[in-house]
């Protein structure tokens, strides 16, 4: 073994920065979630009816969509960072990257659909 | 000085002869204030002269005798046996190929160090006498100058194990030492070298390097500052 440092011409500074920014946004959104769902109830039990009474508000889809975007980016970017530790072959990198991208797109689609469905739901 | 009975398991390996590394057990009495290096010397001089290990200064400054004892990377010369008790398990540093027994091939380690240009780069006219640094300027480099290049940190870094191309904490710490040196003009080229997928971004702040460092250098803290510097420089 006589391995040297192999420069890749691929920087990681933007991914690192965006991971930190998305972490801060996630923290703020989580606090907003706690406030809106758990503390505004003033003693009311947090159950199905309480949550469903909130989903028709204008801020619900906004908050949930931001949550969806940042959580997906943060999670998948983190996973990609871990995979990069163990994957050096170009082919496998492409396979993993495509898989993560596909998972991201599918989850984004399903998540968005759920948010829209909940917002437009007519509660009896 | 009282004597105590110890049992020492050492990972032995001779490429060409042994198919894979094997454990060998030694049992003997030694002074209770002995160091790991004293134990190895005792084995080498009294029990088995074929045991190979690196040693030089015996003062924890040359960085030759870094090895893994009971799962911890330590300098053999400065580590007393009572830190681990009477049962010792001694192995070579992880992540490097073994030349023989406890001697590992450090060529890749030093090749990576050379890549970050570990020397002062000065573009401005040289001063007549010495470079003057203020106390604040010196504090910016801090204890990063204390590194003795023993490789204990790089061997303890889990990011280094699967990816042999990763620069590793020791080379990155050396990069920090020059990037934050007020006298140095080579920051841009160094930051460009380490702003790479196999550079500073493979560090995931695991803190193993800090735990392994015999000089107690806060390596992870310095690498975090280095990441911020790279981002500032690339925006």
Give an account of the 3D structure.
- The complex is a heterodimer of chains A (124) and B (235).
- Chain A has 124 residues and is mainly α.
- Chain A has one domain: Fumarate reductase/succinate dehydrogenase, transmembrane subunit (3 helical TM bundles of succinate and fumarate reductases).
- Chain A contains four helices and no strands.
- In chain A, helix 1 packs antiparallel against helix 3 and helix 3 (59-86) packs antiparallel against helix 4.
- The radius of gyration of chain A is 20 Å and the shape is elongated.
- Chain A starts with 12 loop residues before the first helix and ends with a helix.
- Chain B has helices at residues 36-47, 107-115, 135-141, 152-156, 169-179, 187-194, 208-212, 219-234, and strands spanning 3-12, 22-31, 66-69, 72-75, 87-91, 98-100, 103-104.
- Chain B starts with a strand and ends with a helix.
- Chain B is 31% helix and 16% strand.
- In chain B, strand 6 (98-100) and strand 7 form a beta hairpin.
- Chain B is elongated and about 60 Å long.
- Chain B folds into two domains: 3-104, Ubiquitin-like (UB roll) (Roll); 107-234, Orthogonal Bundle (Fumarate Reductase Iron-sulfur Protein, Chain B, domain 2), CATH 1.10.1060.10.
- Chain B has eight helices and seven strands; from the N terminus they run E-E-H-E-E-E-E-E-H-H-H-H-H-H-H.
- In chain B, the strands form two sheets. Chain B has a five-stranded mixed sheet with strand order 2-1-5-3-4. A two-stranded antiparallel ribbon of chain B has the order 6-7.
- Chain B is of the alpha+beta class and 235 residues long.
- The interface between A and B is medium-sized, with 21 and 30 residues.
């Amino acid at each position: 073994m006589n391995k040297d440092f192999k420069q890749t011409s691929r920087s990681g500074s933007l991914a690192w920065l965006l991971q930190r920014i998305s972490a801060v946004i996630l923290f703020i959104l989580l606090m907003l979630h706690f406030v809106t769902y758990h503390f505004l109830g003033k003693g009311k039990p947090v159950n199905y009816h309480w949550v469903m009474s909130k989903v028709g508000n204008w801020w619900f889809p906004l908050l949930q969509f931001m949550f969806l975007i940042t959580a997906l980016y943060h999670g998948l970017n983190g996973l990609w960072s871990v995979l990069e530790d163990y994957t050096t072959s170009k082919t496998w990198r492409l396979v993993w990257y495509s898989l993560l991208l596909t998972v991201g797109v599918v989850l984004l689609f399903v998540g968005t659909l759920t948010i829209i469905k909940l917002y437009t739901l007519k509660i009896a | 000085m009282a004597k105590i009975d110890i049992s020492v398991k050492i990972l032995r390996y001779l490429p060409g002869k042994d198919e894979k590394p094997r454990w060998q057990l030694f049992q003997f009495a030694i002074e209770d204030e002995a160091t790991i290096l004293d134990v190895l010397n005792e084995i080498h001089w009294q029990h088995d002269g074929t045991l190979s290990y690196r040693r030089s200064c015996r003062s924890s400054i040359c960085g030759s005798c870094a090895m893994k004892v009971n799962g911890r990377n330590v300098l053999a010369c400065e580590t007393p046996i009572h830190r681990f008790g009477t049962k010792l398990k001694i192995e070579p540093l992880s992540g490097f190929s073994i030349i023989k027994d406890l001697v590992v091939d450090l060529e890749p380690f030093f090749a990576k160090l050379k890549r970050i240009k570990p020397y002062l780069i000065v573009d401005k006219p040289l001063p007549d006498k010495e470079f003057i640094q203020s106390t604040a300027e010196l504090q910016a480099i801090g204890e990063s100058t204390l590194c003795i290049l023993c490789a204990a940190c790089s061997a303890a870094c889990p990011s280094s194990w699967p990816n042999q191309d990763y620069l590793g904490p020791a080379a990155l710490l050396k990069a920090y030492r020059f990037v934050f040196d007020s006298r140095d003009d080579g920051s841009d080229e160094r930051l460009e070298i380490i702003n790479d997928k196999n550079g500073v971004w493979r560090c995931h702040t695991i803190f193993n390097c800090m735990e392994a460092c015999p000089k107690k250098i806060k390596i992870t803290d310095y690498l975090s500052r280095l990441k911020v510097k790279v981002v500032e420089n690339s925006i």
